[in-house]
Design goal:
Blueprint (H helix, E strand, L loop, with lengths): L5 H14 L3 H8 L5 E5 L6 H17 L3 E5 L6 H8 L7 E6 L1 H8 L7 H4 E10 L1 E6 L7 H10 L4 E5 L5 H13 L3 E5 L3 H10 L5 E4 H9 L3 E6 L25 E8 L4 H15 L2 H9 L3 E2 L4 H22 L5
Parallel strand pairs: 1-2, 1-3, 6-7
Antiparallel strand pairs: 3-10, 4-10, 4-11, 5-8, 5-9
Helix pairs in contact: 3-11, 8-13, 9-10
């Protein structure tokens, strides 16, 4: 075999290099290179689980890999967060959580991970208003009537929520503080149980999502009187607490996706693009509306800013009201 001249060898080497993918292309192909696990911090069948399962087919189509939903409900969301905190920081294991993500650090102080240090936002998925409701036979039709009745009750008015540290719990504590009434929190294991007792008339009030509340409202067994978020949503026609006489009141639940700190920026950006593709899909948005949720853009930077604001709000709420989140 004849020997190649040095110039010929250099030419062949350059030609071969030209056939290799550029580093950026290699990085893109490297993610995702296997199915993605989406760890949901709630049990199957609930509001958050429903939203997660609505977006995963579209996200999978964009990413070219299956997304497997892994429900890890319990312990205030720390079981799910712990599973993601110990996974590789490569974007193949993600956390799907709600506003309780912000509250958890004030409830569970002995976790082996740190919410602020060990997670970064991938993107917001939905805003989910909470709604203050009463039994249909309570004789109350608006927030003023509810607060007047609470002031007249020396023992205080009980309200149920989907759990300690839930947005409903925080909204009730803030409302009691701002309006100068006594409200006693009763934590339930989920919103459907709150709705059940509202419908039966055994619970004076509840603060829960429209997804849980709608069946008993439509059945004429409960009345929605005010939305806890800064704008209307969840159930058409229901005014906000701020509109009803308690200014600057805004506690909104949300759902979002997080990943391990240290995950490459290009991976996070690609995941955010997949979220946006899912939440902008007309069918997905319609299904979100059906359960009282509003699809949102991912906007990871804005989500990070929101986390900072809400942690500060909770700290202030704890100081002002003495509310116990533990």
């Amino acid at each position: 075999m004849p020997l190649l001249s040095p110039s010929r060898r250099r030419l062949l080497a350059l030609s071969g290099a030209a056939l290799l993918p550029a580093p950026a292309v290699l990085a893109q192909r490297a993610f995702p290179n296997r199915p993605i696990r989406l760890v949901v911090a709630f049990a199957p069948g609930g509001n958050s689980d429903t939203l997660a399962r609505l977006i995963t087919p579209k996200m999978s189509a964009v990413l070219g890999q299956n997304i497997v939903v892994d429900n890890r409900g319990g312990a205030g969301g720390t079981l799910a967060a712990g599973a993601v905190a110990t996974a590789a920081a490569d974007g193949h294991t993600l956390l799907f959580d709600a506003a309780s993500f912000v509250v958890a650090q004030f409830v569970q102080r002995s976790t082996p991970f740190n919410y602020e240090r060990d997670f970064v936002p991938v993107g917001n998925v939905a805003d989910v208003p909470y709604i203050l409701a009463v039994p249909a036979n309570a004789g109350v039709r608006d927030l003023k009537g509810f607060l007047d009745k609470a002031r007249a009750d020396r023992e205080g008015t009980s309200y149920g929520t989907p759990g300690v540290g839930s947005p409903g719990h925080l909204a009730g504590a803030l409302l009691a503080h701002r309006a100068g009434v006594k409200l006693e929190h009763i934590p339930y294991r989920g919103g459907s149980e709150v709705a059940r007792d509202l419908a039966a008339g055994t619970l004076p009030a509840g603060i829960l999502t429209a997804n849980s509340l709608n069946p008993v409202v439509q059945g004429g067994r409960a009345v929605p009187i005010a939305v806890t978020s800064g704008k209307r949503g969840g159930i058409p026609g229901v005014p906000t607490i701020a509109e009803s006489g308690v200014p600057d009141f805004d506690i909104t639940s949300w759902n979002a996706i997080f990943c391990r700190s240290g995950t490459p920026d290009e991976v996070r950006h690609r995941l955010a693009e997949a979220i946006d593709a899912a939440t902008s899909d007309p069918e997905v948005r319609s299904r979100f509306n059906d359960i009282g949720a509003e699809a949102t853009a991912a906007e990871p930077d804005r989500l990070g800013e929101r986390l900072v604001r809400e942690r500060a709000l909770i700290q202030q709420l704890v100081r002002d009201t003495g509310i116990s989140l533990g």
